[in-house]
Amino acid sequence: MAEIPDSERRLLVALACMAAQYLDRGGELDSLSMSAGERAIEELARYGLVNAGGSRRTAVWTDAGRRFLELN
């Protein structure tokens, strides 16, 4: 992942941890059709941390996303 400003990184860490805690279903993220979950998936995909499904409802962690969670 490209270098990002520290303030942006802190927000991304919080978002990824929230998604891992509340949306992860055995390695797949499910937004549960909540707009906040869908937006979280969109942003995580924008940073290459997840591969989003076609519907915006689901995604899977990428290798980079799993490493990001492990490091943070």
Descriptive overview:
Helix 1 (6-22) packs across helix 2 (35-46). This protein has a 4-stranded antiparallel beta sheet with strand order 1-2-4-3. The protein is globular and about 30 Å long. The two termini are 14 Å apart. Helix content is 53%, strand content 17%. The mean pLDDT is 91. It has a single domain (6-71), classed as Arc Repressor Mutant, subunit A, CATH 1.10.10. It has helices spanning 6-22, 35-46, 63-71; strands at residues 24-25, 28-30, 50-52, 58-61. The protein is an alpha+beta fold.
Question: What is this structure's SSE topology?
Answer:
Elements: H1 6-22, E1 24-25, E2 28-30, H2 35-46, E3 50-52, E4 58-61, H3 63-71
Antiparallel strand pairs: 1-2, 2-4, 3-4
Helix pairs in contact: 1-2
Write a concise keyword list for the protein shown above.
alpha+beta; Arc Repressor Mutant, subunit A; 3 helices; globular
Give a brief description.
The chain has 72 residues and is α+β, with helices and mostly antiparallel strands. The protein contains 3 helices and 4 strands.
Oligomer: single chain
The CATH architecture would be Orthogonal Bundle
What is the N-to-C succession of helices and strands? Answer: HEEHEEH
Q: Which topology does CATH recognise?
A: Arc Repressor Mutant, subunit A
Q: Strand share of the residues?
A: 15-25%
SS content category: alpha+beta
